[in-house]
Amino acid sequence: KRDINYGAEISVLDTRLNFEVNYYDNKVTDLLDDVRLPVSVGRGSSVVNSGILSNKGWEISTRIEAIKNADWLWEIGGNITTVKNNLEKVYYRNEPNVSSLLPQHVEGYAVNSWFGYKFDHINPTNGHVMAVAQTVDVNGNIDGEEVIDLSGISSADLQSNYRTFYLGQQNPTLYGGFNTQLRYQNITMRANFVFAMGNKIMSFQDRREGPSGLTDDITAARTNRLKNQQYRWTQPGDITDIPAYSSNYSNYASYLITKDLEKGAYIKCTEVGFSWRANPNMFNKVVRQLTIGLYANNLFTISPYSGTDPEIQMAFGYPTTPSYIFSLNVGF
């Protein structure tokens, strides 16, 4: 592993204004990766130390005492980090021939990158998904783009004659947080927020055709449908962006398209707190300290994402739940 870091710290106005900036350039070698083996070996693949990953970016943080006197103290702070990672060496050096519903590790791209096809429209004649794929020449080189019937094309045709697009990465390229604390004599209020952006995560939309060869029965628990499925294609001439249900398996159910991904950007309020500390002169010698606090965690999230919680990066993952805490500290 190789780590290169450059940084600077600035503190002025009697430490009331503090600023720190760092640039990092790290490289990790000998990462574990799957390598295919000849059939004569007796096994199809093996895990070996063959990968190389680089990470570059900036880390910036600041803390400001906006107001500071005998009765008041108002502090504001924040940090932001940019991340650009690149898989410099992996076994799969080229872009995937076909897409996957899972993020992939491909040389020359970020960790957990998405590869798939670009949604174009729903065929009004038969309700099939029409998507844009990259075409290749006889030598396997990309030479253009073409709208294909993703619901009807065979896997062999898709793999031989078409290639995927890079659709983004699962991990944020920018993240950070900011906080503020206001204190007046014995009363303190504070709030903390975190944010992230620059990534794509699986959509909450019901993108599977069902019932189909994969999802068998629409009444089953795993095939409950969103309300917008009532606007799916049902007869020739329907104009919609939701494909027809099918009783047959199709490639649309297995391959990623742009409609399956959404922006994973968010701002989350992780904590809001209020506390009051009693003046020692209020009590007799038995009670020396009294502090009352009320805190709320994970209050709300602001995000364009339609799923439950963009922070966990899963369409149907369990979200971080709000919690409320009342505290009473007494010192004798």
TrEMBL record:
Keyword Ion transport among UniProt keywords: no
SUPFAM superfamilies noted in UniProt: Porins
Family from the record: Belongs to the TonB-dependent receptor family.
Membrane topology label: Multi-pass membrane protein
Keywords: Cell outer membrane, Membrane, Transmembrane, Transmembrane beta strand, Transport
Originating organism: Candidatus Sphingobacterium stercoripullorum
GO cellular component annotations of the record: cell outer membrane
Matching InterPro entries: Beta-barrel_TonB_sf (IPR036942), TonB-dep_rcpt-like (IPR039426)
Protein name, per record: SusC/RagA family TonB-linked outer membrane protein
Domain of life: Bacteria
Subcellular location: Cell outer membrane
Species lineage: Bacteria, Pseudomonadati, Bacteroidota, Sphingobacteriia, Sphingobacteriales
